[in-house]
Structures are given as C-alpha cells and as structure tokens.
Amino acid sequence: MKIQYVEIDGLNGSKEFIRLDFNNDLNIITGRNGAGKTTILKLIWYIVSGNISFAIREINFRKIKLQTTDYSCIISRTTRNNCSLYLKVNEQDPIEIDDWVIDEEDEDEALEFLVTQLKNIADKKDIQQENPNSILSKHGGSLFLPTFRRIEGGVQAKRKNIRAGMSSSRRLEVSLMELSDMLTNRNHQFVASLGTIDIERFLRDKNAELVEEVTTLQNLSNLNMSEKLKELQKETNTEKVQEELKKIHTMMAKSEQRRVDIMKPLEVARQYILDILKISGIKIGNLTFGSAVETINSNLLSAGEKQMLSFLAYNAFYQDTIFIIDEPELSLHVDWQRILFPTLMRQNSSNQFIIATHSPFIYNKYPDKELVLSSDKGDGCLQND
C-alpha cells in the first residue's frame, strides 16, 4: 500500500489548507520549526495504523482526508472528543459514522456507541461489522520512527536504583516497550527503544522465521530426493539412470537457490551494515555478522551508528511498507546524512519513505521529492521560492 495524498484543514488552529501529494518512493517534508512537520507525520501514522482515538485526543485539526492505493478515509472533528468518519475501501460500500465519541474517561460508553453505529450500517448495507481502526490496520504496513526512537541508557542511572528491584535503565526499557506495544497494530509498528534492543529482537525473530522456512524447504527437498534415489536403485537402464540423476542435480540446485532467496534479506542487511559502518564484524543480540574474531557488540556503537544500523536492518526486511521518519538526521554525521537515502533506496526496497527534516544534506539531494511547508526550512538560511 502507498499513500497518494493527504489534505488537512485547520492544523493546530491554522486557517491554511494543506495538501501533500506523495511520491511512491521518497517524500521529504521541510519547513521551519512550528510549521507542523512532526504533527503531520504523527497524524498520518495514527490513521494508517488504526489509532484514530490518539489522533483526535492529541492533535488539533478540523478535517483530514487520507487517500491511499487501498482506501479513502475522511475524518472531521465535530467536538473536542467527537468526530465523523467516512471510510471507503476499494470497491466496498463506504462506512459512515456521523458522531463517533472518543473520550478516554469513558471508553466503554464510546465503544458501545461505535458498535451500535456499525450495527446500523450492517443492517442497512449488509456488510460485516468491524471497527474502522481494525479495517485501517489490516491494510498495508508502516513503521513510525519518532525523534525519541532510540534512547541511550546510562550506567550511573542503572546503578543508582538497582536496590529498588528494577534499574532505571530496565524501567525505561519496559516503558518504551509498553508504549511501542500499545501503539503497534498488526503490521503497523511504532519504534521506540533503549539502545539497540528493538533491532536485536527484530533480527532474532526474522532470522528464526527464515531458518524455519529454509528447514521446511530442505526437509521436503531431501524427502523428494530420497524417493527418487530409491526408485533409481530398481532401474537397470543406464541412460534413464543418467537422466534421473540430472533431474536430481537440477532439483538440488533449485533448492539451494531457493534457500539463498529466502535468506536474502538477512544477507542484504549483513552486507550493508558491515559496509556502511566500516566494521569487520558485529554482534547483534544472538546474531553475528562478519568476522567473529573482530566483532563489536551493537550496544557499543555510537548513537549515529545505532541509527544507521536500525535504518538498514528494517529496510532490508520490509517491502511495500510506509516508513514515516521524523528527523532521520539525528545523531548522524553529515557524510551519513548525505548517503542515508541513496543507500536505503539502493537496497532494492519497494518501501515508501515519508520524512521530515531540517538537513540540507538530505533535501538538497532530492529537490524533486521535497514537499515545502514553509520557505524558511529551519536550517539557518531562508530559501528562495
């Protein structure tokens, strides 16, 4: 799924109407501090991830229309905690809710009201009863990387509260995990982590999935070859034996190529991580890339290296996913700011990137991908219109 455009009216009380038309690959939102870049990113992600209640509670806007390749969604605020919603998915009948109550102090009542509305729609149009948040989260996939996506732990803070039963670092880790889990819906992930903990778990889980798939493939291939060899033992025709042996060889080659294809995301991540970080080996959780002798633990990387590690790892495994990144330049040396998106785009990714940045080292490389909210981009100089 790709986001095609967004229209926002009354953002942060402004009278200005905002429309952003998105490219399928890279979109760079620029503007001074206070122009609304972060707010727009957050508002978009809250909707695509099926977190409409957070959008209504946290963000001041009158109306938003989000058009994707899968659906059209229009949300209009009616009161502080109420909104109307129009959601049309492809060729399906639209869902329309006139007065959706979103009140954190009485969520049970709000949910009951929503269910009633959906029942009425179902009775009239004979469609499946389903929460709009659930419908939205079922479509596509996304990653939201806010400015606080990667927080460094402190040794002193860890020692200070160790007697309390949980160190400060551990409490912070748990809090970030809870926040991420609360906002993550299906294939829409909110990234907030202490150090490289999220990357360690992500790569561990992905590696386990790939290994399981390869093991299943190899077991099936071995079974097929075993049956073929048993049949050959009974064969007396030499030419036919040679022909069948060639087929077995072809089968083995195809099986090996399939194994390589399955493990390709991990190999792509390995190659880019070692090349970009210019290291011989790295240990990320229980995985080791490169030389085991000259390995460095991912927790010992600099803040900028950890940022690059996360971008490269996530981008290697995700396809057709919307990456929403607030200030990707954080902690990155200017040389890495220059190569960040050329590198990510070179990973043969089909992902759509929507970012907000103040870095001229990023937006100057892609003038055709820039979406300007204000001529003053917050980089210290006023740009010409």
TrEMBL record:
Organism per entry: Faucicola osloensis (Moraxella osloensis)
GO molecular function, one term: ATP hydrolysis activity
Name of the protein described by the UniProt record: Endonuclease GajA/Old nuclease/RecF-like AAA domain-containing protein
Domain Endonuclease GajA/Old nuclease/RecF-like AAA span(s) in chain numbering: 1-362
Superkingdom, taxonomy of origin: Bacteria
Transmembrane segments: none
Entry-linked Gene3D superfamilies: P-loop containing nucleotide triphosphate hydrolases
Short name of any one Pfam family annotated for the protein: AAA_15
InterPro entries reported for this sequence: AAA_GajA/Old/RecF-like (IPR041685), Bact_Antivir_Def_Nuclease (IPR051396), P-loop_NTPase (IPR027417)
